[in-house]
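Field: COMPLEX_INPUT
Field: COMPONENT_COUNT = two
Field: RESIDUE_TOTAL = 228
Field: MODE = joint
Values follow.
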Amino acid sequence: GENVEQHPSTLSVQEGDSAVIKCTYSDSASNYFPWYKQELGKRPQLIIDIRSNVGEKKDQRIAVTLNKTAKHFSLHITETQPEDSAVYFCAAKLPSGDKLTFGTGTRLAVRP
Amino acid sequence: NAGVMQNPRHLVRRRGQEARLRCSPMKGHSHVYWYRQLPEEGLKFMVYLQKENIIDESGMPKERFSAEFPKEGPSILRIQQVVRGDSAAYFCASSLTGTGDNSPLHFGNGTRLTVT
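Field: COMPLEX_OUTPUT
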């Protein structure tokens, strides 16, 4: 099955700086890579996703890049704000199945 | 659209009791997934169901755990004879057509099970 590793486990940045979270996956057949944000005690919420036929996708201050050759994808948050503080999870999905395999999460703290 | 509804939000059970967790998917969604989240850990897939069918239960323990999604009513995750190691947050998610075609997953607020 698929295995997803995520780094770093914790990240602290100054407000206004950029934050980058990286994930690697094991199965080159994976074709769908969503990112979820989970605030304390709340549900994971989809913030952006990318499919394997695309190398980069951007939505305002959030961007995701995918390198299929190296089997890694990254989340970039620019101009960070305190409300960006949360745990972020990456995930990957194989085309043959319906389950998402999640990374272990990155706890992002944005210092005012 | 009310979103994915889970209840109860918090559930306390003594060792050996049964826990029953409920999930109503988003309106129009017929694909339901259950994930377990241990403290400070990621989401672990448990089971994927469509109406009246279990599609993939590869992440669910073979003993004590069962899941159903009847024709009418919510999906139920049942844990029999709970043990302390079952304490976790259990999240339900639904999608419109199944993530097989990369339809996004929408999560509920979870049920936090505590076994004393």
